[in-house]
User: Fold this.
Amino acid sequence: MNKSLLSAAPPSIARATALAQERATSVEADDPFLWLEDIEGRGQLAWARVENEKTLGVLQADPRYRPFYEQALTILQSKDRIAYVSLGRRGLENFWKDEDHVRGVWRRTTLERYRSQDPQWETILDVDALANAENKNWVFQGGSGLPPEERLCLISLSDGGKDAASIREFDSETKSFVADGFYLPEGKQDVSWVDGDTLLVARDWGGGSLTQAGYPFVVKELKRAQPLGEAREIFRGEPTDVQALPLVLRDSEGRIHATGAIRVISSVECEYVVFRPDGPIKLNLPKKAAIVGLASGRLLVNLDEEWEPDDVRFGTGSLISYDLAEWKQDPLRAKASLVFQPGSRQALSGLSSTKNFLILTILENVQSKAFLYKYDKKAWSSTPIPLPQHTNVNVSAASGQADQAMFTVSDYLRPTSIWYFDAETQNLEELKTTPTAFDASNHVVDQCEATSCDGTSIPYFLVRAKNARFDGAIPTLLYGYGGFQVSLLPSYLGPVGRLWLEQGNAYVVANLRGGGEFGPQWHQAAQGAMKQTTWDDFIAVAEDLIRRKVTSPRRLGVIGGSQGGLLVGAAITQRPELFNAAIMQVPLFDMLRYTGLGAGASWIAEYGDPAIAEQRSWIEAYSPYQKLAPGKTYPAPLILTSTKDDRVHPSHGRKAAAKLAALGQPYFYYENTDGGHAAAANLIEYARRLALEYTYASKRLCSE
Assistant:
């Protein structure tokens, strides 16, 4: 820190900050594995290759590995699995991967053809052919069409699956990149069309235009054929923010009603600025609010905190709306009205709009239902959409040009299905069903509750054999996440069912605080100083499974990725005696250094800042890397990372493995060279990862 700034701070803050910096310096000096933070260093990659060889040598030699791999790959590459589509002006579009298209093909069909058992597809872009022609390991990250025609698209292509991608202009009618079209070199960037000759772009412009988290905080207007260096700056956030994003509010016909920028202050707070002829205006929305779209001539805003404008109180988790014309005339004085306010065990889980309607999916005790909303005579009315009950329901596609939508309907044992919905006639039609991946006839799903250490009931789903004997002998994998208001909802287990459940094993999904299963409050109960709450909830579920004699510590394993990998790390360092297996996928692990690794600084709102003494103390109390200690026995974890993960730095997993080795503790480590944060750039890599995970779990939990 700048010494002059430090000396100007109040004495207590200055002392605390200096102490935190001193401790951080001490940690670095005492950490013999800092060298593994150099991602592409020759020695570091050599270390990873050696670790990979050791892990593959053991797990691929297991007789279960090859059948697991082949079964997983067969399921993942099945020709008759669902082709999920978007409903665009130019038809139904899909991105498809199989053994012939490892990187994937972007393609299009019609609704009539899609209804058939084997629809014909028109190829728009073959990413495998493009990668071969350009000698690149391209991973397709989607395209953004220019409304209303949607002929011109901005295509995002990532080298190996990184979040950072290059953006190129593509003509979806001629199926070719536009000569001298828009091109943005690789970076973490966000781009929005204004018109055929204008983009709003947030990216690295040089000269310190990135936040500590590595995201842009400057938005510029870029004209066709204009060099990046000549783009006009239109918004600048702060270097301490997470990022800035362009804002373009369009209706279903492609008409723009406002442009501006979003200043993302933290992972849970933002500010909106709209550009007007008389200058920019900062909207008077609360910081924990998000503009989520336009529907029925109304501007929709979701609230993650209680808000009381003009003596009208809106509760946390509410959806509110403004008359669009009134809002455009004066955004600061327009009056909001309520669309939906959740009850105590409810949460808004999804929102989509068609030409004339709004569709909401709502969770109630982690069970979802869909409702059709219509604005008429100055009020919203809702009608239930009669989809199958006791399932997870999501809108997978919605058309802004017509009153059409598609739903995915799924649970743990029922193959996912696609339903077509005509909102005008309210006709509902099942179109597609995922092929059965495993025999679920002998299994059931129980929704149970554990009691956390503060008395809160924590729901979880237990997927088990119908005839299971509760004698503590069932090999069980416990999965969790518990962060960033992400909800874990029922979905078909597919390869997990084939590789794990069919063997008579059990699978558990825990709905921990920190997630969004019961709305923003459920998340906020486990942020910052309260993050230990998530780990307590997870441990409570593990203890409940043992208390019910579903399983025992000998037969219980834990699994999670990213924040879920941190969850697993906290569980096995705080209560190692409860578990005999742990699978950590692209995990966070060294929480005292996380803000300087990858995109870590963008998550300070979730965990706290280790540079601040008080916050460092609560992080240090659970940081798994620091909690690994001599004299303890840990459940020989399988740690999976990706060299090209530019979100969660691979050194978290590397250093975990290295420290376990130094402590003489057994572990398995595998680092995929591609794949980004997903740790699998294609279906072959994903099948390999699944086979490694379930071979490991079987060795640890199923062997006598």
